[in-house]
């Protein structure tokens, strides 16, 4: 597949990001102690490899790739979308470390997914080839859904705070925006 110069550069950066993600995940899978977090990483890992391989095919094969990235369903498991099930656990960066703990690995993975998601969305907006644009849109959704899995695990453990917005904030913001009366559609 003939790529535009910017498409090749974006795919290069995104593939390099995948190298980092896959390498870190391979390490984390061997170190993580929490069975649920380990299962999340093991479930996500093959999709990251498939995502990387598709980028490599777009970069190296004249015909690109025929594969389609499977986007996992969003799996909400929290009982509340505004309230943490437990009190947030304080954290302090460690300045000497021999091995990551589960919280540090989950944080590293979550932040990687968030950054990758932003990069996928940005790059998709710049793609001229519709197949690559669709692939990156799927990669964004995959990152978003994976981030949701990790984020929920962190909320359940008290590692990521979740609280409702104060009613005063909702009242102030809700009062700022008035509904637009939709015009009749011209036929």
SSE topology:
Blueprint: H1 5-31, H2 35-60, H3 102-126, H4 130-157, H5 167-176
Helix pairs in contact: 1-2, 1-3, 2-4, 3-4
Explain how this protein is built.
The chain has 187 residues and is mainly α. It contains five helices and no strands. The chain has helices at residues 5-31, 35-60, 102-126, 130-157, 167-176. It is flat. It starts with a helix and ends in an 11-residue tail after the last helix.
Concise overview:
The chain has helices spanning 5-31, 35-60, 102-126, 130-157, 167-176. By secondary structure, the chain is mainly α.
DSSP summary, beta strand count: 0
Query: In DSSP terms, counting alpha (H) and pi (I) runs of 4 or more, how many helices?
Result: 5
Task: Give the terminus-to-terminus CA distance.
Answer: 41 Å
Reported for the largest beta sheet, the result is: none
List keywords for this structure.
mainly alpha; 5 helices; flat; 187 residues
């Amino acid at each position: 597949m003939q790529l535009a110069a910017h498409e090749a550069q974006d795919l290069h950066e995104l593939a390099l990001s995948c190298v980092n993600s896959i390498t870190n995940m391979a390490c984390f899978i061997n170190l993580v102690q929490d069975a649920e977090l380990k299962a999340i990483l093991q479930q996500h890992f093959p999709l990251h490899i498939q995502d990387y391989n598709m980028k490599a095919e777009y970069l190296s094969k004249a015909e690109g790739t025929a594969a389609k990235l499977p986007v996992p369903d969003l799996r909400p498991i929290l009982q509340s979308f505004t309230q943490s099930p437990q009190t947030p656990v304080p954290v302090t960066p460690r300045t000497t470390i021999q091995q990551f703990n589960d919280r540090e690995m989950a944080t590293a993975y979550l932040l990687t997914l968030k950054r990758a998601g932003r990069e996928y969305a940005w790059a998709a907006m710049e793609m001229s080839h519709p197949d690559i644009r669709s692939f990156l849109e799927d990669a964004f959704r995959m990152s978003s859904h994976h981030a949701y899995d990790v984020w929920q695990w962190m909320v359940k453990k008290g590692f990521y705070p979740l609280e409702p917005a104060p009613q005063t904030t909702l009242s102030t913001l809700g009062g700022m925006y008035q509904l637009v009366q939709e015009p009749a559609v011209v036929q």
